[in-house]
Amino acid sequence: MSSPVVVLIVEDDAAIAQFVAASLSASGLRPVSASTAAEALDEARSRQPAMVIVDLGLPDLDGIELIARLRAGAATPILVLSARTQEAQKIAALDAGADDYLTKPFGVGELLARVRAMLRRAAGSPEPAPLVEVGALALDREARQLRLDGSPVHLSPLEYRLLERLARVQGKVVTHRQLLADVWGSEQVDQLHYLRIYMGHLRAKIEANPAEPRYLLTELGVGYRLADE
Fold this sequence. Notes:
This protein is α/β, with parallel strands linked by helices. The protein has helices at about 15-25, 35-45, 65-75, 85-95, 110-125, 155-170, 175-185, 190-205; strands at about 5-10, 30-35, 50-55, 80, 100-105, 130-135, 135-140, 145-150, 150-155, 175, 215-220, 225.
């Protein structure tokens, strides 16, 4: 029998942590709880959870900073549970590396649906080669580094995730909604302007002529693809 999937819950409100843990346990998952960012980092290193659920209001460190630290060490899916409803806070969390954002109060059904979707995407994602190359562009997935003509190109965490998502299926089109779901989270699948803005940022960094892209190609009305030749 396979071991239960471990999910790390980072929440300083004991009642909410217990509620989330009970919900995950009832679904056959194995919850592990941490009430501070320091505990969370220790648990993440020792347990290597399949995903992390993070509250932004932690006593020792802002949750957005914790997300950035977790993301720096692993590609583990991160779901934010927070009472912060401002769009700027959501964008900051997603930019830091979170995969999805659920606002408190929330229903157990929606929580579990988000968890299942994130675990399914993580388990089912094809594993591309560590080094993805096309023309003068080279994406080193192990080092999380992009080079153009041999020189490093600085990408924000969100820009990197967008490019890496296209690189997983190099040469194939990824739809707008799929990119938005995988990079920004399922709440943002209708926010096409996010995708257009960040694609513009990426093109400005790597294309000789962003108006006539060589690497990041548009399939009108459908999505984007990373060139494969």
